[in-house]
Design brief:
single chain; two-stranded antiparallel sheet; disordered N terminus; binds guanosine-5'-diphosphate; binds magnesium ion
């Protein structure tokens, strides 16, 4: 099912006092619709990746070392990253030695299976806390799409019949609160805010209290963009986590790092340091629609050991999809 790809939680992240229950089946988009939207979103990546793979394998009947040598730079060009590329190449070579690879179709099939295995290796089942509200914190650097994703997720959960409250905890930037208010109106959900320059933890405190009082199922917290190097801002994030936990045991249940797919390997380096500092449990990869380097999804799995949970595929309310490894891999390679 489409929601089965939520990555492993680190054992240290488990909240023993707050049992997590497997999610009840959620009303989902038909598989086909999801696949078509994923396929559309990774068009640019597929066009460059698949076409270059096709030109490599068009030359061979039996896949040999030369084919594999030619394949390697294509994986790097799609932004799979050096560690993932090395891993995939090693497995393909082993396979070629052991049983041989019978032509291009066989190579594509094996490549897809290798990529899917990497993604599934970091998957985890979706869980919701036994007692709502579920608190989801959106974190990351400036401009990656935190506010936009918060708005899209509000609509996504609402469409599933869950009640949603937003917390405007980016009190730093002048327009941030107004920006989130516009998204709240679009998806017809309530928002808790404070004034610009106010303490984000105070806004979060109010939001947690309101979510509990109103029996809201999901509280999504939009935070200010920050770099892992800004110690005071990272401390502020810690304070927010402690505030949420004080009111709602086990909160935040998910901390989603929002990453911009167009920033490629740079974004990855930044994300690695960020995940270490901020207890990140999963990734939202935005702007997948605007890049030919969608292979970054695989680098995230190999190098961050985190699953991509949602993909941003445009600027509109509905432009978000739950990430699904099979759809992704099938969309990537024709
Ligand atoms: N094409 C595209 N643009 C996006 C996506 N997500 C966000 N954006 C755009 O990225 C810009 C920054 O988004 P914003 O949510 O303000 O980022 P924040 O600073 O992290 O809160 C805006 O112009 C958004 O419309 C996406 O999935 N695809
Ligand atoms: Mg923002």
């Amino acid at each position: 099912m489409a929601f089965s790809l939520f990555g492993k939680r680190d054992k240290s992240d488990q909240q023993p006092d707050e049992p997590l229950t497997p999610a009840a089946p959620e009303p989902q988009e038909p598989k086909r619709g999801l696949f078509d939207r994923m396929k559309q979103a990774v068009t640019r990546t597929r066009e460059s990746f698949s076409e270059s793979i096709s030109s490599v394998i068009a030359l061979t009947r039996e896949v040999d070392e030369t084919t594999l040598v030619n394949l390697e730079p294509l994986l790097l060009a799609a932004d799979l990253g050096a560690p993932t590329t090395a891993l995939v190449m090693e497995n393909l070579r082993q396979r070629a030695l052991r049983v041989g690879i019978q032509g291009g179709d066989d190579l594509k099939r094996l490549l897809k299976s290798e990529l899917k295995q990497i993604l599934d290796g970091v998957a985890r089942p979706v869980t919701h806390p036994a007692t709502p509200p579920e608190v989801i914190m959106m974190v990351g650097v400036n401009g990656t799409g935190k506010t936009t994703t918060t708005g899209k997720l509000a609509a996504h959960f609402t469409a599933q019949g869950r009640t949603v409250l937003l917390c405007a905890a980016d009190t730093f930037r002048a327009a941030a609160i107004e920006q989130l208010e516009v998204w709240a109106q679009r998806s017809n959900v309530q928002i808790i805010k404070t004034k610009q320059g106010g303490d984000p933890s105070a806004a979060l405190y109010d939001a947690c209290a309101a979510a509990k009082a109103r029996n809201t199922q999901v509280l999504i917290v939009d935070t200010a963009g920050r770099l892992h190097t800004k110690t005071d801002l990272m401390k502020e994030l810690d304070k927010m986590r402690r505030t949420a936990e004080k009111l709602i045991p086990g909160a935040p249940h998910q901390t989603l790092l929002v990453m911009d797919a167009t920033t490629g390997q740079n974004g990855l380096t930044q994300a690695r340091l960020f995940t270490e500092a901020a207890h990140v449990t999963g990734i939202v990869l935005t702007k997948l629609d605007g890049t030919a380097k969608g292979g970054i999804v695989l680098a995230i799995a190999t190098e961050l050991k985190l699953p991509v949970i949602y993909a941003g595929i445009g600027e509109k309310l509905e432009d978000i999809i739950p990430f699904d490894s099979a759809s992704f891999v099938d969309s990537l390679i024709d």
